[in-house]
Amino acid sequence: MIEIAYIAGIKLRKKIIEKKGDINTVVLKIQNAKTKHDFADCYLNLCLAYKLEANNDFVINILTEKTTVGEVSTSLCLGLTSEKDYFFSLNNILSLKEASEMWGLDDSTLRHAIASARFEEDEYRKTGRNYIIKKEAMERVYGKLGH
Q: Over the range 66-80, which residues count as b (16 or more CB within 10 Å of their CB) and which as e?
């Protein structure tokens, strides 16, 4: 779901740029979504406004998966604000929650590691209150999984 949201953000960013829209305004709209229904409604309205074909599977997954609205909106905003389509390799992006579960750490441990600069600035992004981090950054700081 995180990867799909990131790709949706990239596609939306391209349309916004084509139409000379304001990406920051769109990011604020997305960040204001409090529930999954609000987020889905916001995404569909943005698709209509920028004449982008909505990804119906993405909308259905937003409403049915256990991923939080914060994680999905953070990933979508990353796609919107990235200057390069490849900021994160799609198989290499993790929400802080996913990373903490995979490495058996509390997410507060990861937040502290970010705050104390154990991760490089290009290894994570923050949107609102949520973070997304590169898997290779986790491996660099905490070691490879299974080792």
A: ebebbbbbbbbbbbb
